Amino acid sequence: MDNSTSNQSPNRAPSAHLNANLNQSDEERFNFARSLHFKGEFDQAKRIYLDLQKVQSWPQLSELLGILHLQCERYQEAIEHFKICDEKDYSNADLLFNYGKCYSALGGMEKALELYERALILDPQHSNSIYNLANLYKSIDDFKRARDYFQKDLQLHPKVDTCCALGEIYERDKKLPEALELYYQGLALEPDNPLPKLRISIALQKKNTSAPIIDFSEFNIIFKFCREVLEEFPENAICYALIGDMYLLLGNINESMSHMRKSIALDASFATSHTALGCQLLMTGQFEEGFEEFYWHSQVTEYDTGTVARSVAGSTKNEWSGEVYAGMQLLVTSEQGIGDQILHFHCLPGLIAKGVRLVISVNYKLVPLFVRSFPSVEVYPDCYPIPDAVEEQVDFQTSVLGLTQFIVRTMDDIIGVPSYLQACKEKTAQFAARYVQYDHCLKVGISWSSNSTSTGTAKTIPLDWWHDLLAIEGVQFVSLQYGGVGVEVEQVNTQYGTNLIIDREINITEDQDGFSAMLKNLDLVITISNATAHLCGALGVNTWVVLSPAPLWHWFYGLDHSLWYPSVSLIRRAPHDHWKDVLNRIGVVLPLLASNKSSGIDLFDGVPEHFTPKKV
């Protein structure tokens, strides 16, 4: 927010009204006080202002005292002086602006907004009030009003700060081209200013992280701007984090971690770098330090924290620290999304085998599935408190992520269980009866989109790009995409003559138990990294998970098979690849499976090893 005082200088000429009411000595003292004020000798200026107030009631003295206190960050004292002016109906846009700044500094946002608005009534082009109004509305998440005021300020007085602030709002709304245009406008105004260089670099990093193919010319811009900023500000932690992000997209994870560590060394409270380093450490199997860093994710506003059910569960028991003994009763509360819960509850079979009594909370959609799969476990929906009678029996509590943290110390500790979730046999048979008409084909389910606010765009592959796959003979494709995709599917089928079907007898989004039965009737699932991938893996369904160059940590670094799920193969997009290149690779292999299905032999006979599920 603008830290300047008003456009009014304490050294401006006194008004005619003042001259008429001061004798020569008072006028000289007044001018002398203003000159002291202007030079920053506030204590002497204040004494003279106060002495003059004893003999003069002119409100300009109160205004100047208010400005002086504002400059000294004594906001409450400043307010008292500005209030005197206001009560005497003496006001101008500068005074109201300064008055508003005091309230803003003390957290009185509503009063500050009122005063800035009043300043604009007196002077509709008062730039400082417009700019501060924009920032105030931005701070209370009223982005529409903030955008309107920033645009007005930009029209009146183009400046770098306004370009960048307005660009951030467009960036928040996923309008990166508009944001970049504003950042470049700011750079044109001040070519040496580091702020637009940083904003351009951040926007280009986001763009390339979520783009279907990396633009290496934009990588060069990021590296260039970050180096220029670091030459002037060698302790800029953001630049090192941005360079680290770029190295990760390029596949150089060691260089990425090195830059994240430099970023943290410069700013130990920078949660984004801690979280990124944590993910990379976990991705390379360095679990102890990785989890320590990863837990900073709760302070990253753009990270999907999902449902953290501990407060809902209401347990007061001690934190679990990894001890395991027969008869111990452990409460495990859900965390993050459905896919994360499925993944981290992979530890349940091992704990049950060691005699641990478990009480867990999961997303309500998963309750029937977990009750069936783990009959000895007490399962509760994560949106309700744990019953008091159950709480009394609990020895320790942890979150589902805590299970993995304490049980998985090295990659060798990950024991891939072929199918630790069990679909309903009756529902599975019902789907089998409906899908018998496709038994002569290879039945393949596909999921192409993610609604994750932080990583969804980076993982999503538009359905339109799948059309060559969907046209492969001998394959019946089934949509596994949650959400309303009927129009999208119909458009692709009409345009390309494909036959991707939607099973309208099941609500995939809500009915995870029925969805599990549906998945068990498919020969293969091809999906991006989303909840469907984890559900398939936990059910033991043959699955190809298509990954971006910088995937989530639990897929690890450089592996072509999942350690958690033996039935899951990982199809990675290389840094130089487009998503279409990945789909083309799949398109070469998929006809082999269709041919094997038609011939009645093992589906993966003759299929390249990295497309073939592990034998357990």
Mean pLDDT: 92
Strand order of the largest sheet: 1-5-2-3-4
> Quick one: CATH superfamily of the largest domain?
Tetratricopeptide repeat domain
Contiguous uncertain segments of 5+ residues: 11-21
Total number of domains: 4
Radius of gyration: 32 Å
CATH architecture of the largest domain: Alpha Horseshoe
Structural class: alpha/beta
Walk me through this protein's architecture:
By secondary structure, the protein is an alpha/beta fold. The protein folds into four domains: 16-233, Tetratricopeptide repeat domain (Serine Threonine Protein Phosphatase 5, Tetratricopeptide repeat, Alpha Horseshoe), CATH 1.25.40; 235-303, Tetratricopeptide repeat domain (Serine Threonine Protein Phosphatase 5, Tetratricopeptide repeat); 310-413, Rossmann fold (3-Layer(aba) Sandwich); 426-611, Rossmann fold (3-Layer(aba) Sandwich), CATH 3.40.50. 53% of the residues lie in helices and 8% in strands. A five-stranded parallel sheet has the order 1-5-2-3-4. The chain has a five-stranded parallel sheet with strand order 7-6-8-9-10, sandwiched between helices.
